[in-house]
Specification:
Layout lengths: L1 E3 L2 E7 L9 H11 L9 E5 H7 L3 E3 L7 H10 L3 H10 L2 E6 L2 E6 L2 E4 L12 E3 L5 H16 L4 E9 L6 E11 L2 E3 L15 E3 H13 L6 E7 L5 E2 L26
Parallel strand pairs: 3-9
Antiparallel strand pairs: 1-2, 2-13, 3-13, 4-8, 5-6, 6-7, 9-10, 10-14, 11-12
Helix pairs in contact: 3-4
Length: 260
């Protein structure tokens, strides 16, 4: 258990997860092992690979059809042709790359390889993102709330990289039960000046806190209970309000579409 002032984050350890497993059972059993119960206001951050495994969202590399575009991208960026084929089928847009990775837009996120990953995926397979992360988060939240009789938030998280920074941080790819962005516009700073632009992405902040415990290797921490975060509960909220169009994004507005 890690505490930062009023914030408490608790790792939830999982057994080996298989396709078809009931995710809510895995989470509630893990919470009970920590001798805790879900309270109103808690946020459960779940690793995207856990959700994808339960939803059987992985594909066999040997069964992948490699297209001409995938072959070109694989040669240009020194990536396995089969992986390139899976990435291009999952991505909404390929915008570039570096050796070993394609830079893509997936579900409005700028991420490597459209979220496709070989790590911690069964041998010979590639793991995909959940088909609809917001829906997965919403369905899981409803089950957990019914069983714990409290109003909670759920987010599905993955790791990603940020421009000009080495290493990964957490990213909330699916959100349910709370408003993901806190709007500070119109408030005053310490010198009394009116804030004009600042909005805080609390969902990604929570994702990074959870990612800190989950790690990137064989920790088997499939979810993290986050308690004490100041959020605005909203049963209808999802991750859509945290997304920006390319034209409004400082980085995205300056991207050029890769030419396959």
């Amino acid at each position: 258990m890690v505490k930062h002032s009023a914030l408490t984050i608790v790792p939830i350890h999982f057994p080996t997860v298989r396709a078809g497993d009931e995710l809510a059972d895995l989470i509630l059993n893990g919470v009970r092992r920590e001798r805790l119960r879900l309270r109103s206001g808690d946020i459960v951050a779940v690793a995207s690979k856990i959700v994808s495994t339960c939803e059987a969202r992985y594909v066999k590399l040997e069964a992948t059809h490699v297209t001409r575009v995938a072959k070109h991208l694989a040669a240009r960026w020194r990536i396995d042709e089969r992986l390139a084929a899976i990435v291009t089928s999952e991505a909404d847009r390929v915008v570039g790359g570096v050796n070993g990775f394609l830079l893509t837009i997936k579900n409005g996120f700028l991420v490597p390889n459209a979220g496709v990953d070989l790590k911690n995926s069964p041998p010979g397979t590639a793991m995909l993102w959940p088909r609809d992360p917001d829906r997965s988060a919403r369905e899981l939240r409803r089950i957990l709330e019914r069983r714990c009789n409290n109003e909670i938030g759920v987010e599905i998280i993955d790791s990603h990289v940020t421009p000009l920074r080495l290493g990964t941080v957490g990213l909330a790819i699916g959100v349910s039960g709370f408003v993901p962005v806190l709007d500070h516009r119109g408030l005053r700073d310490i010198f009394g000046r009116r804030i004009r632009a600042t909005q805080a992405n609390v969902a990604d902040d929570v994702a990074s806190a959870a990612h800190l415990l989950m790690g990137e290797n064989a920790e088997r921490i499939g979810a993290v209970l986050v308690r004490g975060v100041a959020v605005s509960p909203n049963a209808r909220a999802n991750g859509e309000s945290a997304r920006l169009s390319l034209g409004r994004c400082l980085v995205g507005n300056n991207l050029k579409k890769a030419q396959p």
